[in-house]
Amino acid sequence: MIDANPAPHPAADLAVHPSPAPVLSARALRRAYGSTLALDGVDLDIRAGESVAIMGPSGSGKSTLLHTLAGIERPDSGSVLFTPANGAAREVTSLGETERSALRRGSFGFVFQSGLLIPELTAVENVALALMVNGTPRAAAMPRAAEWLAALGLGGLEERRIGQLSGGQAQRVAIARAQVTGAQVTFADEPTGALDSGTGAEVLAILMDSTVGRGNTLVMVTHDAEVAARCDRTIRLRDGRILAGHDPAPAAGSPRTAIPGTAK
Amino acid sequence: MSALSLAWMLGRPGRGRRAPLLLTMGAYALVSALVLTVTAGALSFTRVDNELTGMYLMLAGLAVVLLLVPLAVLGAAAARLSARSQDTRLSTVRLLGGTPSLVVGITILESSATALAGALGGVLLYAAAAPAVGTVHFQGSAIGSAMWLAPGIVALVVAAVALIAAISAAVGLRKVIVSPLGVRNRTTTPKPRWIRAVVVAALIALVSLAFSMLSAFPSLAVILAVLLGGFALGLGALNLVGPWAVKVIGNAKLRKAEAPADLLAARMILENPAQAWRQVSGVAMTSFVAVVGGSGAALMNTAGAGSDPGSPDALLAADVMTGVLITLVASFISVACSTAITQAAATLDRADLYSGLHRLGLERATMEKARVGSVMAPVIGVGAGAVIVSGVLVFPLAGMAVIVAPISVGIILLTLLAGVLAVRGAVALTAPGGVPRPGNSG
Questions:
Q1: Domain A17-107+231-264: homologous superfamily in CATH
Q2: Which of B257, B263, B441 sits opposite A63 (nearest CB)?
Q3: Is residue A263 predicted with pLDDT exceeding 50?
Q4: A105/B361 touch (CB, cutoff 8 Å), yes or no
């Protein structure tokens, strides 16, 4: 059982800056689908508390990189080291399927374009489910989930089915589900891709506030340069490699602290 | 391009569609073999001519009719699976300007062709089983060569299976929308109302009253006629109360749910109680046949124990018991097939969600437990409910049967248990295989 993450307080003003310690360190990641190289020797460090956008054309390997960092996929070779705030570092790619599932449940959060919410469950049940699969009793999980929904502007919609929510509301439910367990790293794959620009901006603001705004890390795949511009730095991929010069080192003192992220 | 040529072009068994196609054809083959076997058994009663021949034919006809219900449910489920496994292709036809009626035509043709192929396989299955089934005794002797139907009747059954599949496909397609952007289920789900329970209670009271007066009736034939009338009313009552009962079961499960799998299972049941009911209605019907028919047969056997074992009445008593057991087995095979088909369609429906939830860290075991729970909770709840309701209906008969013929009652209950296990096996058969692989979109 994990501790439920308290919902963000609207009055809280958390000016959190990235810490220098990498929470994720990828080294020499290679992944091939047949004769196509999706990842071709990617090295990347992501620090705790920073937001990183991954951009690139279709087929460039950005989703594969996201899935590999999150332990959804295993690379053909290379390593991903996850160093949680309180606990020993773990080499993600060497973990078994069950251990990686547990890691994803407990330490990572996910927000995908399609939301991946369970249509039969109500909004509050969808969020509470993330706590329940980690061992939190339902009686404790439901009020915590409701708090998160309220904090993200969905108060009063707890009992709605997913089909009864708008696209933006459904994405907020997905964000609440990703954050309610206290995820240290949130992986988002085109989280605003299916939304109109106004709703997309609202959802992005909520996603940033509930992750990096609380000192946690956000790794986001996007096609949208405006969305990427909201992140601390942007990594551009092409043919499975990080493009040189597209992993900018921020100026000292700003949130965009230099991170070694190299392409081969 | 005509629906026929499009159906041929789209329906060719490709690698991705092989499993659903084989499952559907296998299900039709089994049901066709069952219908042929039961029809042969029913017609075999014409070989002996005595005062009970009419009664035999009526009972055999009832068994055949009972099998048509799960066959129709199976056909509708097969059509839905067919539409689901054709998802992208049918959507593309719509995107290219194909009309909804063209899509209906393609699906009906494909379902009929699948059913026809399955039914032909069923003929082989029936032929293979006929020598063994021919050893079953009715009217004092083995059915023997009477199991072999005339070719015309076999052709008629095969055609009927294809026709029912076509009709079921058309009905089943009303439940899904094939748009240029994909196939999805219609979301209108009628909510069962409590008034159904009141109507059913009144029906039960009426039939109970009629059954309590059974001893007043002079002949076995009249008693059987009253039993059959009550049986028909009982089946109607079951179909009225079914969705409501499933909803009650779902709500009870939801209230108690602590584990994620239980919460998911309860919500999956409550999402569409009517659909959940259709899936398990065969179990209710079979449980009903088991209690009513079984009690009657057990008592008739006991009553005829002292009389001449070769007398028509004693033979009828033994034969009703045999018939009930055969109907139970056949009905459960149909139910298990329907469950396998429905679950295969549901698994295809939810493939993306399953894969996505696995990416989020939800264990496959949790999702699988939810899926099993969403089928087995209604099966067990409805099965037990049907046994209790029908036990109340024929309380004097059932009570007496338990006392005077416990072995017969035990055999019936064991057959029921085996049937429930067969449904569980069908659910296991359609478990999503392997760890879902993430897509590679970028």
A1: P-loop containing nucleotide triphosphate hydrolases (3.40.50.300)
A2: B441
A3: no
A4: yes
